[in-house]
Amino acid sequence: MFTYILNRLGMMLVTLWAIVTLTFFLMHAVPGGPFVSERMLAPEIAAALNAKYGLNLPIWEQYLNYLGRILTFDLGPSFKYPGVSINSMIAAGLPVTLQTGLLAVICVVALGVPLGVIAALNRNRWPDTTVMFIATLGVAIPSYVIATVSIYVFALRLGWVPTFGLDDWRGYFLPVFALSGFWISFVSRLTRSSLLETLEQDYMVTARAKGLRKGQILFKHGLRNSLLPVVTVLGPVVANLITGSFVIEQIFALPGIGRQFVLSITNRDYTAIMGITIFYAAILMVMILIVDLLYVWLDPRIKLTKAAA
């Protein structure tokens, strides 16, 4: 276990280095610069800004300086907001993003998995048809459409929740609903198909022939094995939700990481774009590692060496 985790951490560091390198050179390949705007700066001011942020140095020297800051967990200063670091920007937006993201994750697990189980146990009957119809709609309709329609219906027409912001607890309903809608539908469909496949396995037929209770067969032998594909999906899903949704946070005016990323693109804040990309990549790799470790708990037949492969 310890050797496996060390190997995975080494692979994660190499992958993170590749992402840092790729994002750095892509940002520097973009035409223009961070201080290019409709209002042209005087050449002296532009030169002073480039010198202040080290943009007048050779590209290889800028890369080594940036890589050195990354090694000390310093994502650099913001080009748009003087005196503000990317670390502080992420720290300011992370609580909002974590709150909405974790609530969305809870909804995905608490609703997606049970709905999939209900559909599988009632195959080709009305509960299965109803769940699959709703799940198909949830997968087919984009999250920004769900967000827009829910604002119109529940905020503007009915007045049950605020249209934007998190001034009170009701403000979480629409963002969480829009964030989790697609993934609830996806997880319910995946759980259904995986459980149906598991229920047809020989060991499930043997368990029923032994006279085991239906609940014991379902939860001890069926559901646990059928959750492997669901856990595989949940790793990237959790990383995606707890690092913010660019579209949803922009629609609901949430001051989270996703909205900051959108604003950084609009403002040509290159260090913010690179920093948030690196932060998301790090979270994603950590979640994938946790998923691989969960495999062993869910199915002891899986060995960590196989999971690494």
UniProtKB/TrEMBL annotation:
The keyword Transmembrane helix applies. InterPro entries: BPD_transp_1_N, MetI-like, MetI-like_sf. Its main location: membrane. The chain crosses the membrane at residues 102-121, 133-160, 172-191, 227-252, 272-298. GO terms for cellular component: plasma membrane. Keywords: Cell membrane, Membrane, Transmembrane, Transmembrane helix, Transport. It comes from the Bacteria. It is a multi-pass membrane protein. Residues 94-295 form the ABC transmembrane type-1 domain. Pfam families: BPD_transp_1, BPD_transp_1_N. It is found in: Cell membrane. One of its GO terms (biological process) is transmembrane transport. Belongs to the binding-protein-dependent transport system permease family. This is Peptide ABC transporter permease.
